[in-house]
């Protein structure tokens, strides 16, 4: 069955060496410092991933993975990779120009801001020009919800902030990565309440999905949840090996693995 991975990144050495990732390395035993792009592509293809959305990462420290690098990755594997643009939120005028450039000129499919990098929730004034531009360009804003695995504050990942921007931007497609645990029930309620709020399962293997999320995927949330890995922290194959534990019927499995993503990201 076709698979779309909606949250992945090809990590640079600079990305891997950020000290706030030490907790992830400790949990996973991952001591890799750098991997070739061909390995990332191979990991996707091994698991049947036909499209992977590769994110740029911008933080106060600078570009952890730059938009230029993501464009290079996309151009090397154009049938496999799609780009997700990121920006420095402290310069909103330049941020809007950058988003416009990569969406219009290079067909990037979304914008990602990882709020914990900035220790600012998505309701902060610096986000609002970015959210407005996402509406104008009709591309999703991809955010993180739930506790952070990295050694940074989890405050900015609370679903209550998602509710506020969903109220302020009713036409904005908001994709909430990492399930929202331990606030996943609140995240499910938010996705139920708002037409344009969605959840992706990145950073969790299917055997770790909360039972409430699995029930949501199978019922009234079948059009609301998308498959993601957070590669290289989790490989697509590790997720696919556990997929049958969810006991999804064929219709729900297709929506979860690719159809919802194709619709929301216009793939």
Can you offer a commentary on this structure?
- This protein has one domain (3-264): Alpha-Beta Barrel (TIM Barrel), CATH 3.20.20.
- The chain has 267 residues and is an alpha/beta fold.
- The radius of gyration is 17 Å and the shape is globular.
- The two termini are 16 Å apart.
- The protein contains twelve helices and ten strands.
- The mean pLDDT is 95.
- Strand 7 (141-144), helix 8 (159-168) and strand 8 form a beta-alpha-beta unit.
- The protein has helices spanning 13-16, 22-28, 37-46, 67-76, 92-106, 115-118, 128-137, 159-168, 184-193, 211-218, 236-240, 250-264, and strands at residues 3-8, 49-55, 57-59, 62-65, 81-85, 110-112, 141-144, 174-177, 197-200, 225-226.
- Helices cover 40% and strands 16% of the residues.
- An eight-stranded parallel sheet has the order 1-2-5-6-7-8-9-10. The protein has a two-stranded antiparallel sheet with strand order 3-4.
- Helix 8 (159-168) packs parallel to helix 9.
Task: Write out key terms for the chains shown.
alpha/beta; globular; TIM Barrel
Name of the CATH class: Alpha Beta
**Total DSSP E strands:** 10
Percent of sequence in beta strands: 15-25%
Mean pLDDT value: 95
Write out the strand line-up for the largest beta sheet, numbering strands in chain order: 1-2-5-6-7-8-9-10
* Shape category: globular
How many separate domains?
1
What quaternary form is this? single chain
Total of DSSP H or I helical runs spanning 4+ residues = 12
Please state the CA-atom Rg, rounded to the nearest Å. 17 Å
Helix content: 40-55%
Cα(first) to Cα(last) distance is: 16 Å
Helix and strand run: EHHHEEEHEHEHHEHEHEHEHH
Query: What would CATH call the homologous superfamily?
Result: Metal-dependent hydrolases
Enter the CATH topology name.
Answer: TIM Barrel
In terms of structural class, how would the helical and strand content be classed? alpha/beta
Major sheet characteristics? 8 strands, parallel
Low-confidence stretches: none
Give the name of the CATH architecture: Alpha-Beta Barrel
